[in-house]
Amino acid sequence: MGEQYGGDHQDFRGGKFNGPFTAKAEYHQHGPAPTALDALPPKVAGFTGRSDQLDELLGAFDPDGGEASGAVLVAAVSGLGGIGKTALAVEAAHAACGKGWFPGGVLFVNLHGYDDDRVTAEQALETLLRGLGTPPEHIPNGVDARAALYRSVLAERERELGAVLVLADNASSAEQVSPLRPGGARHRLLATSRSKLPQLGARLLPLGELSPGEAYDLLDRALRIAAPGDARVVDESEAAAELALLCGHLPLALQIAAALLVFDRDKTVAELVVELAESGDRLMHLDDGERSVRAAFDLSYRRLPAEQARLLRLLALAPGPEVTAEVVAVLDGADAAPVRVLDALCRAHLVERGSGRGRWRLHDLVRVFGVGVVKGDAELWEEGEAARERV
Ligand SMILES: Nc1ncnc2c1ncn2[C@@H]1O[C@H](COP(=O)(O)OP(=O)(O)O)[C@@H](O)[C@H]1O
Ligand SMILES: [Mg+2]
After folding, report:
1. In ligand 1, which atom is closest to the CA atom of 90?
2. Nearest ligand (C-alpha, residue 220)
3. Tell me: the pLDDT tens digits for 69-107?
4. Most C-beta atoms within 10 A of its C-beta, which of 128, 232, 258, 288?
């Protein structure tokens, strides 16, 4: 679906917002000394299933793992958009940190491999180096020089603090990732990608949709997180299984569908199944995976109050991978970010919390959807143009 991510909204992504790196280091220059560890996004609430894959990743991260001796270990999680690659990587990173395996911290870099303005390895190295505390004026040009400096900074960090985990999210090619390999035997690099990247020589972990049981559990958990007594999934277990199937057992679609039930305590699972099936029918031109997410987006978007729908469209046009409260306010044409509206969009699972307080991001499929909505309507297009001018 990355190809659909074209269009003019990329013009918004230049300039100072175009940081591929979501470490606090880049944005809070005046705060206390940043640590790379701050860059790890929060865990997904209600993370469900994937226990084999988590075990496998932890096996690859284990600094004392026999297979790691002498070799730098790289692991790559691959799969469709919305399948849960980032969520799994983040979950595994938190688990590894909980075991005290990466006292040197976690670096997180979004390579945007499926956007038109992909981040090059050279750009990624710059932001990784900054995250490691290297002053910008000390960062050389050229991918080889940067990679060499990066490895020596990491070696120093290993001596002083310990091993570092580098998460490279959304890689589309081995060239984007290879130069990010740390030196030393204890650091680890984990890449996520829609493609398998066999050229990396990494431990490959292809991620498929959830099992029907996991998908069902995800729905049940999501409802109970919002209201512990909500037993609709168990009470309507057949309809819930059908709902999970209509969502393609795809976590992103499942979370959005669950949010629709959370919003409407009177809606039965069977009613949502009918609505979702109708929405999916209109999208017959899409293949299965895409149809499940698009149908869920569609349904969710159409029920949004006007101010939420508008903010979602503006966020889809926002520059860069994450937006700060300041940028949201400017997009919105207001003095302050509309936090209440943002919170509502988070609950709808259309917006996610970014790395750190007061930061938000859209899943790239939601962004593609939002851009599609804007492009299909002249009035909305103008609204977006005006917001772009404000930024
Ligand atoms: N195992 C899981 N359990 C619960 N929710 C999940 C799980 N995996 C992913 N999600 C949810 O689905 C959404 C999409 O997952 P994400 O990791 O962003 O997909 P990808 O990186 O593969 O595009 C996330 O917002 C997250 O809330
Ligand atoms: Mg992702």
Report:
1. 17
2. 1
3. 444 478 899 988 889 999 999 999 999 999 999 999 999
4. 128
The string of pLDDT tens digits covering residues 246-304 is 998 999 999 999 999 999 999 999 999 999 988 888 787 777 777 888 888 989 999 99
Residue 386: φ, ψ to 5°: -60, -40
Cβ neighbours, 10 Å, residue 204: 15
Residues 65, 316: Cα–Cα separation, whole Å: 42
Other CB atoms within 10 Å distance of the CB of residue 100 = 9
Q: What is the 47 CA–ligand 1 centroid distance (Å)?
A: 8
DSSP 3-state assignment of 317?
coil
Please give the distance of CA 92 from its chain centroid, rounded to a whole number: 14
Which residue puts its alpha carbon closest to atom 9 of ligand 1?
A: 84
- Between β-strands 352-353 and 359-361, what pairing exists: parallel, antiparallel or unpaired? antiparallel
Pocket of ligand 1 (CB under 6 A): 44, 46-50, 79, 81-87, 218, 251-252, 255, 352, 363
- Say if residue 224's pLDDT is above 80: yes
d(CA 391, CA 387): 6
**Domain residue ranges in the chain:** 35-206, 212-302
Torsional sign, CA 190, 23, 5, 363: positive
Domain 35-206 maps to which CATH number in 1.10.455.10, 1.10.340.30, 3.40.50.300, 3.30.720.120?
3.40.50.300
Q: Number of C-alpha atoms within 13 angstroms, CB side, residue 112?
A: 23
Tell me, in angstroms, the distance from the centre of ligand 2 to residue 176's CA.
16
Rounded CA gap, 282 and 168, in Å?
36
| Ligand closest to CA 85 | 1
